[in-house]
Specification:
This protein is of the alpha+beta class and 251 residues long. Among the domains are: 3-38, no CATH class; 58-147 and 203-248, Roll (Pnp Oxidase, Chain A), CATH 2.30.110. 31% of the residues lie in helices and 30% in strands. The chain has helices spanning 3-15, 30-38, 58-71, 115-122, 150-159, 162-170, 180-194, and strands at 79-85, 91-97, 100-102, 105-111, 125-132, 137-147, 204-218, 226-235, 241-248. Strands 1, 2, 3, 4, 5, 6, 7, 8 and 9 form a nine-stranded antiparallel sheet that branches. The longest helix has 15 residues, at 180-194. The chain is globular. The protein binds flavin mononucleotide. Flavin mononucleotide binds next to strand 2, strand 4 and helix 4.
């Protein structure tokens, strides 16, 4: 450590609560800090993914890995990163929760007028990513996004706790607001208006990503990871991607 910074770093470490002391490296000069981060390395050795032991259908492979993530009791195994692209061609990402999946695709719920909602309205192509750190696994999913039916949205909305249902009315998601007070005031106003029976807001509901490409990544030793990609070569009579081709990608 460069001398001029060691005192400041020591002081900061001293003031931080227990468990946060490792943050003292943030006081170091930029170049040294970068080398500290660059030195973080992990060897991935938990499992392997190969052609013989994987499913021919990516939906079945996903179901198995999702199930294993749930059974491993990971923190928030249902959290996935959703990437969309705006009309300015700039990509953006955010985390959403998977709320269901079946042969048609992967479902989450949100505000249709949010940034992601507006971007999806203009460009339905999107990508999802799960990173299950403890299992050394990543799933990447690409495809076209559609709104779920009003009935599906109604049914999921009705299953949410009351404060979440009010929250869907109270938050003009992704818009600039003057302060937290706006949300609190909105929530109070909608709670008084709807009492125990808020209807589903017209701007809130589900999306389904219909996958045409999947990738399952399993970390392996010496950076020779396993990557199996599935791409659909055709669509069935209902327009669903099928005829999956499974290919190994170099890590
Ligand atoms: C673990 C986690 C789960 C989340 N789940 C959702 C979700 O299911 N739906 C949602 O609209 N936002 C969810 N959010 C908030 C989003 O990440 C994001 O802040 C919000 O949707 C606004 O994104 P946008 O402005 O890009 O549209 C979640 C955030 C976290 C950290």
């Amino acid at each position: 450590m460069i001398d001029g910074n060691s005192e400041a770093a020591g002081k900061t470490a001293h003031q931080l609560p227990k468990g946060y002391q490792s943050l003292h490296h943030l006081q170091r000069p930029y170049t040294e800090r970068m080398s500290t981060i660059a030195d973080l390395r992990k060897s991935y050795e938990r499992a392997e993914l190969n052609e013989d032991a994987s499913h021919a259908d990516p939906h079945a492979q996903f179901a198995q890995w999702m199930d294993e993530a749930l059974r491993a009791e990971l923190p928030e195994p249902n959290a996935m990163t959703l990437a969309t692209v705006g009309s300015d061609l700039r990509p953006s990402t955010r985390v959403v929760l998977i709320k269901g999946y079946d042969a048609r695709g992967i479902v989450w719920f949100t505000n249709y007028e949010s940034r992601k909602g507006r971007e999806l309205a203009g460009n339905p192509f999107a990508a999802l990513q799960f990173h299950w750190v403890e299992l050394e696994r990543v799933v990447r999913i690409e495809g076209v996004v559609e709104k779920v039916s009003a009935e599906e949205s109604d049914s999921y909305y009705a299953s949410r706790p009351l404060d979440s249902r009010i929250g869907a009315w109270a938050s003009p998601q992704s818009q600039v607001i003057t302060g937290r007070g706006t949300l609190v005031a909105n929530a109070a106003q909608y709670a008084a208006r709807f009492l125990l029976q808020p209807p589903r807001p017209p701007h809130w509901g589900g999306y389904r990503l219909v996958p045409d490409t999947w990738e399952f990544w399993q970390g392996r030793k010496s950076r020779l990871h396993d990557r199996l990609r599935y791409r659909s070569e055709a669509r069935d009579a209902s327009g669903q991607p099928h005829n999956w081709v499974r290919e190994r990608l170099a890590p």
